[in-house]
Fold this protein.
Amino acid sequence: MGQMLVEAYIEAARQAGFETLSLHVRGDNPAWLLYERAGFVEVGVNARGYLH
């Protein structure tokens, strides 16, 4: 279910003209695996420990 929601969000963003998306998630949040499967990649960690 969660994967479908993320994919629907990505598709809606594409249809709205967005070329890139970003998000922040704590590294200890298992949801990051869902985002990774949807194609998001980690580019860094901010001072509060959030992956972005």
User: Anything to note?
Assistant: The first helix runs from residue 2 to 15.
